[in-house]
Amino acid sequence: MTFMEKEPFWRLFNRGGYVLDFSTEHFDDFTQDSVGIRLCEKYRSSKGRSLEHFVSDAPLIKCGSYLLIC
């Protein structure tokens, strides 16, 4: 994803480390079910930072899966 594609994604989902209304445990459960990775566990970071790492690292198809589920 380009920066121009990522920026709206960050603003929509990452609110100062908060992602929607998920607790860390529920966020990891959700991401495990939707993209097959427990993001906070993998990146050892906050929900927001973990999501940023994922979008930077993951293939576009997985990011698209996350967006479609939300």
Plain-language structure description:
The protein is mainly alpha-helical and 70 residues long. The protein has one domain (3-69). The protein has 5 helices and 2 strands, in the order αββαααα. Strand 1 (14-15) and strand 2 (18-19) form a beta hairpin. The longest helix has 12 residues, at 24-35. The radius of gyration is 11 Å and the shape is globular.
Keyword list:
two-stranded antiparallel ribbon; mainly alpha; 70 residues; globular; 6% strand
The gross shape turns out to be: globular
Any idea how many domains?
A: 1
Residues in helices, as a percent range: over 70%
Largest sheet: 2 strands, antiparallel
Mean pLDDT: 80
Rounded to an integer in angstroms, the radius of gyration calculated over CA atoms is 11 Å
List the helices and strands and how they pair.
Layout (H helix, E strand, L loop, with lengths): L2 H11 E2 L2 E2 L4 H12 L3 H5 L3 H11 L2 H10 L1
Antiparallel strand pairs: 1-2
